[in-house]
Design brief:
The chain has 427 residues and is of the alpha+beta class. Strand 7 and strand 8 form a beta hairpin. It is globular, with a radius of gyration of 21 Å.
């Protein structure tokens, strides 16, 4: 345990009680410079798991750790409406979608997602992906080379579109690429973010065509499939979602699956650097595949942070959380908190070999309960797809040529710069 983690530890396992106040410090420059590690540096410097500062001039309370996550997901204390900056929200999620809703309206919309993205559906999508991985491997052997990140985008995109019951189209590969561009640029500034915004517009128009076709009968849909379910979903008021909102919700079923490609590229990197785990995953050792997937999600950067607003005044650890105050939970810092994860920078799937992490301990896709809260309902998809991709790669015979395998924690999201290139692929 680090000295900072030891200093924060109390005899009840909690962090230091007080929220450190730094009202004149704006964290925006640090986040732009250090990315994922910016808030971790501040938490360690201040010796606390909670501090008040500013973000682009706005007063914010920053939190990390599983106890802070438990508070953050208490819907009697926090709400999501208006918390995420509009450019990020509209680029990544769309307008009026489930991620920005609260209360009964959120639970009703979320039930649709939970009903679709269950374990059975995750297995179905993974089965489809397995077939695409096998076909890709045959092509790689002919071509002699593959970039794992690019291939993962294609494989997972094709699998999730087929699961969603979307008709095959000649431009599907381009639309899947748009979904990846949305993820790649939502957290950036300048041209990269503009590319993501344009990709979101194209994807919304594409999905809206399916929604309209399903509703007016031009497309034959099957009851219970994602396309039919989203197209026919009615809000608490009994009305169908407007076409654009329904289109964006359909994208919010597809996009997170394509985003698993970032984790797949890190899984390839971890297998390369830890060949002992390649052997264990390939052999089918009980629990190894799932433990490996958990540790990839914990160790490597993905979503950086989440935001919410204080719903009503309350006190916690000596600090008054005033109604309307913006609060940011640092996902990366929580998943790398030495008070919870000894030697957090070490890649060690043994952490999960004989236990599942708590709902507020490991939060790469949010914390709490997916049924009632804001935890990502697509987490079963991520675990199934990531575990199977790792097993596929572990059993594949290939060479890793010289390339740039570094990744920048200042870039959000990040991945190995080369995309992880393999050559000499053998049966």
């Amino acid at each position: 345990m680090s000295t900072h983690a030891a200093a924060r530890r109390r005899d009840d396992g909690s962090a230091r009680a007080a929220v450190a106040e730094h009202p004149f410090t704006d964290m925006a420059p640090a986040i732009l410079t250090y990315g994922y590690r910016a808030l971790s540096r501040a938490f360690d410097r201040y010796g606390t798991d909670a501090f008040a500062a500013r973000l682009l001039g706005r007063p914010v309370v920053f939190l990390r750790g599983h106890q802070a996550a438990r508070i953050f997901y208490d819907e009697t204390r926090f709400e999501r409406s208006g918390a995420v900056p509009a450019p990020i929200k509209r680029t990544l999620f769309g307008k009026g979608t489930v991620h920005g809703l609260d209360g009964p309206v959120h639970r009703h919309r979320k039930a649709m997602f939970n009903g679709l993205a269950d374990h059975e559906a995750a297995v179905r999508v993974a089965d489809l992906a397995d077939a695409h991985w096998d076909a890709a491997a045959r092509r790689w052997r002919r071509e002699g080379k593959a970039v794992i990140f690019d291939e993962a985008v294609n494989v997972l995109g094709e699998a999730v579109c087929a699961w969603a019951d979307l008709p095959a189209e000649t431009d599907r590969a381009q639309r899947v690429a748009d979904l990846a561009t949305i993820v790649d640029g939502f957290g950036s500034a300048g041209p990269k973010h503009l590319q993501a915004r344009f990709a979101r517009g194209r994807a919304t128009r594409w999905a809206r065509g399916f929604i309209e076709g399903a509703r007016d009968g031009r497309l034959q849909t099957t009851f219970g499939t994602p396309l039919a379910t989203v197209a026919n979903h009615r809000g608490l008021d009994g009305d169908l979602l407007d076409e654009t909102t329904a289109a964006d919700e359909l994208i919010n079923l597809l996009r997170p699956t394509v985003a698993v490609s970032w984790f797949v590229s890190f899984a390839a990197l971890a297998l390369y650097h830890h060949p002992e785990w390649r052997e264990r995953v390939a052999s089918g050792e009980r629990g190894a595949e799932r433990a490996f997937a958990h540790e990839v999600r914990r160790r490597f950067p993905f979503a950086p942070m989440l935001a919410a607003r204080v719903k009503s005044d309350f006190g916690w650890r000596g600090h008054n959380f005033e109604k309307g105050r913006l609060v940011v939970l640092d996902i990366y810092a929580t998943d790398h908190d030495g008070a919870t994860w000894p030697r957090p920078e070490r890649f060690d799937p043994e952490r999960f070999l004989h236990r599942e992490p708590g709902r507020y301990q490991l939060i790469p896709q949010g914390g709490g309960e997916p049924e009632s809260g804001h935890r990502c309902p697509g987490e079963p998809f991520t675990m199934e797809l990531l575990g199977r991709a790792a097993r596929f790669l572990a059993r594949l015979d290939y060479k890793v040529p010289p390339q740039d395998l570094r990744y920048s924690t200042a870039s959000i999201p990040t991945r190995p710069r080369s995309g992880f290139v393999i050559t000499e692929i053998a049966p």
